[in-house]
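Sample 3 of the quickstart, ligand nicotinamide-adenine-dinucleotide:
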Amino acid sequence: MAEAEYDVIVIGGGAVGENVADRAVQGGLSAVIVESELVGGECSYWACMPSKALLRAGAALRAARDVRGAAQSVTGGVDPSEAFARRSEIIHDWDDSSQVEWVEGAHIGLVRGHARFTGPKALRVEAADGTVTELTARHAVVVSTGSDPLLPDVPGLADVRPWTSRDATSATRAPATLAILGGGVVACEMATAYASFGTAVTLVVRGQALLTGQEPFAGELVRASLEKAGVSIRMGAEAASARRDDDGVTLSLTDGGSLTAEEVLVAIGRTPRTTDLGLEAIGLTPGDWMQVDDTLRVVSAGADGFDWLYSTGDANHRALLTHQGKYQARACGDVIVARAKGEPVDDAPWGRHVATADHEAVPQVTFTDPEVASVGLTAAAAEKAGYRTRVVDYDLSWLAGASVHADHYEGKARAIVDEDRKVLLGVTFAGPDVSEMLQAATIAVVGQVPLDRLWHAVPAYPTLNEVWLRFLETYGR
Ligand SMILES: Cc1cc2nc3c(=O)[nH]c(=O)nc-3n(C[C@H](O)[C@H](O)[C@H](O)COP(=O)(O)OP(=O)(O)OC[C@H]3O[C@@H](n4cnc5c(N)ncnc54)[C@H](O)[C@@H]3O)c2cc1C
Ligand SMILES: NC(=O)c1ccc[n+]([C@@H]2O[C@H](COP(=O)([O-])OP(=O)(O)OC[C@H]3O[C@@H](n4cnc5c(N)ncnc54)[C@H](O)[C@@H]3O)[C@@H](O)[C@H]2O)c1
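Result:
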């Protein structure tokens, strides 16, 4: 049995854990990552990267088809086998050697195996070959273990071996038919990708809308385009039972209907990867999300007992997005260094050691058709939070840039103005290729740039970014 002591132990070598360890080492501490699967985690191998790779071919074709002159050259559809091959190439065929090389180059230790707490600042790591390493931390342990797909308790569902996001992103062949449970981000993105491969997709959605955390027009535009692409959408229905036979999986639905598909993908949210982490050894409850303060320090059972325990990324449930987890990681790594060295902690809102943006300025792109790019609060969320707001809507198709971009550009944009401070609380764009417009909105929201000053941020003509000028003109000066 090997033993080792480090200043910082990071459990989980996903994109988030890697960044915590990197910041700690850059601050002069020693750090080790414990990883039970692939260094790079879910995002690199089963989530962001492969899903976006699978979506890209369809998006490129749609763009070309809507530009007269280019459209004439598009004579076929997406070739799924080439799209799967490109996906595999982009994610290095599930080989993490390049990420391991990066970890080594960053002077971060790496222990492969499954970590469990044995006590405060103490972990036991079991590798697949049975090797055991006992690790102790001088200053901090960071739980960056991510999340797993949530499976609903539906009779028979587990027995039909449903697809999760991992199966959908690592498939090497498109099924003829696919049922998808859920109407959120994974469901809509995977419906878009598989419909582009020629799969007959049926979405089974519990509520009456898609992408419910977003402005309502986003879900409505995505719904219309999925239906145009041949996706069947069953709103107000849930799976009541499932069984598999030679015809595939048959789902009976709560609305009395049923459907049969070759595969069923469950995409109804996530559950924390904290069940098998030995949390009971430190007085926490296995299977819970880790509750943290803005410096990412665990507060679940009173901050005093856990001044050495942190959690970043999906595991803390603040914002289940790679970029936001990496943002937390930078604050977390830096605050661990500051506390270890007895340096001042900058934990005022927007300080170096806090993840303030998690509360009201989270950017997200959903890579559907159309893309949905949003940051900050929706109109409903701003109202709920008690702000006095004005909603500014603009139709993206009215922009000169849109008419050049595509022959039938369809899209909408919304900005939420805080009427008391005359700054933006949130912005949403839904339209083809809006993803690259998001960072300007994020800067305006995080920077709390006054509308008066935004008039001086002149968008280039003729680009889609002219929506910024139209927002201001619509609002009035
Ligand atoms: C289909 C899909 C598409 C997505 N697309 C996007 C996107 O486009 N953009 C975006 O921002 N977000 C996207 N997300 C969300 C994003 O994938 C997650 O927010 C991100 O991966 C979280 O990173 P993490 O480091 O917290 O967790 P993970 O990436 O899950 O990493 C955690 C790591 O910890 C390891 N681990 C867990 N327990 C232990 C243990 N006990 N011992 C040792 N190691 C352990 C795991 O093996 C894993 O490697 C997507 C999610 C899904 C499901
Ligand atoms: N492009 C991106 O940024 C991207 C892409 C994919 C995933 N993600 C992240 O991954 C996370 C997980 O995505 P997701 O789509 O699984 O979750 P989600 O929270 O986005 O959507 C889950 C959907 O399932 C529904 N639902 C919940 N329980 C249900 C049940 N028992 N039966 C039927 N429907 C049920 C919800 O109403 C919701 O519509 C998200 O938080 C998202 O941030 C991000």
